[in-house]
Amino acid sequence: MSFKPLSSLRRGIGMFWRGLDTTRRFVLNSLFLLVVVVLLVAIFTGGPKPLVSKTALVLELRGDLVEEHTGGLRDALLANVGGEVRRMVELRDLLVVLDAAAKDKNISSVVLLLDELDGGGLAMLHEVGAAIDRVKAAGKPVIAWGGSFDQKRYLLASHASEVYVHPMGMVLIEGFGRHRNYYREALDKLGVTVNLMKVGTYKSFAEPYISNGPSQAAVEADTFLYGALWNGYTALVEKNRKLPLGAVARGIDQLPQLMEATGGNAAQVAVNLKLVDGIRTKDEVRAMMIKRGVYEESTKTFRQVSFADYLARNPQKAFGDAVGVIVAAGEITEGQGGPGVVGGVSTANQIRRAREDDSVKAVVLRVDSPGGSAYGSELIRRELELTRAAGKPVVVSMGSVAASGGYWISMAADEVIADPATITGSIGVFAILPTADKVADKLGVRTAGVTTTWLADAYNPLRPLDPRFGQLVQASINNVYREFTTRAAAARKTTQAKIDEVGQGRVWTGTQAKERGLVDTLGSYGDALRSAAKRAKLGDDFRVAYVQRAESSLERFLSLLGVSDVQAIRIQVKLGMLPDALPAGAVAGVAKDLGWLSDLAEGKKPFAAVTHCLCELP
Question: What span, in angstroms and rounded, lies between the C-alpha atoms of 333 and 374?
C-alpha cells in the first residue's frame, strides 16, 4: 500500500514526458511542414509579379541609418518580451535600391518619406544623397515629404527634385557643435580624484573629468572641425536647392523676425526661404502622385513598390569572385564583438576568413568607429597587414567617424578613402585611473593589508594613486603613442615627426585629413569597392560579399523560414533596468559620461591604453 503513491508519481511523470515528447515532435513537424510550404509556394508562384511601367518606388525610411544592424537574434528574441521595436535602415540596402531604381525602366519616380528617419552620420547621408542624384540624372523625379525635417533629414531631402513639408511642420537647421558637461568640481565635492595619463595636446576625451571647462587646444580644434563641417553642409544644401551662397546662415540669423512675420508659421518660413517647394499633407502628396502616375484600383492609390519589396527584387550576386567587405562599426573592444561593436578578436577572425576564402580576391574594410581599445585595434590592423602580405588588396572606406582606434585599424591598407565629412585622425592615447580615497575618508572606510610587492595592490581605488604606478602607466601610454605614430608614418610613407605634428589627438575632417596626408582619396563607399575590384583585376561585374559574424543554428533555421536578418534584429532590447520616467536628455547625458568613467575604472588591465575620440556629432 505504501508504494501506491510512488507508483502513481511514476505514471504521472511518464504521461507528462510522453506528452512533452509528442508536443516536441508536433512542433518540429509543423516547422518542417512550414519550410516545405514556403519552398513550394516560391517554386510554383515564380516569385513576385514583375513590375510594370510607371511604378513609383516609395522609400518610407524608418529608424536609424546604420552601416550594419546592431544587436543579434538573441537580442531580438529577448526584446520581443518588451514589445518595443527599434527600426534600422542599412546603408548598403538603401544604396542597392536607389541604384537599381536609376537603371530600372519600370521605375518612373521615387518618393522619399523621411518623417521617421532618426539618424545617420554625415558620410552616410552623403552616400545616400549621391545615390539620389544618380536617380535624378537618369531622368526620374524624386519627391521628398516630411512632417518636419531636422538637420539630417533635410540634407537628404535637399537632393530631391521637389520637397514638401506638412502645414504644421518645419525645417530645423541648427548648425554643428555642442556644450559638454564638466565634472571636475562635482567630483572634487564627492572626493573622487581622476588621474589622467595621456599623450596628445588635443586629446580632449578626458577633459570633462579633470577640468571645469574646455582647454584652449580643445576650443581651437573644435572650432576648426565644426566650422569645416558646417561650411560643407550649407554649401551642399545651397547647391542642391540652387540658393545663393550664405543663404542658410542668413536664414538662421533672421529666424526670429521671419517667424514673427508669418505669425509663427514655421512651414511658411521654410517656403519663404526656398528650403521647400510647398506645404502639403501626406494625402495631398498621394493625390499628386496619383495624377502624375497610374491609379490602381486594387490598392486605391498610385502604382508603387515599397523599399522592402524592391530590395527583395534585387538580390545581389551569390557566386563568383568577390570583393569581401568587413564592417567595423562601433566602439572597439578587445574580444568578441558583433553588430554595433567592433571586437578585436571577432573582427580579426572575419578578416582572416576573407583572406582564406579563395573566392574573395580583395578586401574592403568599412570603418565607422570612434575607437576604443588599442590592443583590439592592433589585432585588426595586423590581420589586414597579413591579408596584404598574402597578395589580396586591402582598401579602407571611412564612414562618418574613423578616429583614434578607428584610424589605427585603417593603417594597413593599399588605399584609404574618406568622405569629405569623415571625422578622422585623433592620433593620441590616454588612460584614466580614478581614485576615491577622499570618499573613503569621509565615510570612515580604511584599507590596509599585506602584499609581497608594492605592485600587488598598487591601483586600489580607495587609496591615493601610487606615483610609481602612475609612472608605469604613463610609460605604457608613451609607448603606445610611439607605436601609433610609427605605424602611421610607415603607412603614410612619411616620418614620425610629421605624423606627430598632425597627431597629438587632434581631429580632422576628411578633407583636412587629405590635405595633411592622413588619407589617400576623397570618395564614396562605391569608390572603395571599385578600387578594390580594380586592384584585384575583377572587372566591372564583380560580386560584393559581406563577411559577417558566424550565424547561430537558430538564425540559419529562421533564414530557411524566410525570416531575414532585417526582420530578426530590428528590435530593441528593453531590460527595464532604468525607470521609464528617466529623462532622455540632460540626466541621460550625465549618466553616459559617468558611465564611461566607471567602465574605465573597472577595467581589468590598468596598463590598457585607450584610443578613443569623443567626437560624435549631435
Answer: 9
Provide the grid cell at 156: 537628404
The yes-or-no verdict on residue 128 having pLDDT over 80 is yes
Sorted by sequence, the CB contacts under 8 Å of residue 122 that are 6+ apart come out as 155, 229, 233, 400, 419, 421, 617
Task: Judge contact between 128 and 65, C-beta under 8 A.
Answer: yes
* 50 in a structural domain: no
Strand bridging mode 360-369 / 322-329: parallel
Q: Which residue has the cell 590598457?
A: 608
What's the rounded Cα separation, in Å, for the pair 121 and 176?
Answer: 12
Give the helix/strand (H/E) hosting 60: strand 55-66
Q: Per residue in 205-225, is it b (16+ CB within 10 Å) or e — as a string?
A: bbbbbbbeebeebbeebbeeb
**98 in a domain, yes or no?**
yes
pTM, two decimals, is: 0.83
Neighbouring C-beta atoms of residue 611, cutoff 10 Å: 33
- The verdict on 353 and 299 lying in the same domain is no
| pLDDT tens digits for range 282-306 | 999 999 999 999 999 888 999 999 9
Q: How far apart are CA 61 and CA 90, in angstroms?
A: 10
* 530 and 454 inside one domain: yes
Instruction: Say how far apart CA 459 and CA 602 lie, in whole Å.
Output: 11
Owner of C-alpha cell 558637461: 181
| One-letter-per-residue 3-state SS of 245-285 | CCHHHHHHHCHHHHHHHCCCCHHHHHHHCCCCCEECCHHHH
List beta partners, residue 611.
372
160 plus 280 within the same structural domain: yes
Rounded CA separation 18/271 (Å): 71
The answer to whether 375 and 334 have CB atoms below 8 angstroms apart is: yes
Same domain, 305 and 440: no
Active site residues: 203, 404
Q: CA 396, CA 366: separation in Å to the nearest integer?
A: 6
Give a yes or no: residue 187 inside a domain: no
Tell me how crowded residue 261 is: count the other CB atoms within 10 A of its CB. 13
pLDDT in tens, 11-46: 767 676 677 667 767 766 766 676 666 555 555 555
Q: What is the pLDDT of residues 517-562, one digit of tens each?
A: 999 999 999 999 999 999 999 988 899 999 987 655 544 444 444 4
Contact 543, 320 (CB under 8 A): yes
The candidate with the shortest Cα–Cα distance to 398, out of 389, 387, 409, is 409
Range of the domain at 257: 55-71+87-177+241-312
Out of 262, 288, 312, pick the residue that ends a domain: 312
Instruction: Work out whether the CA dihedral 270, 273, 279, 285 comes out positive or negative.
Output: negative
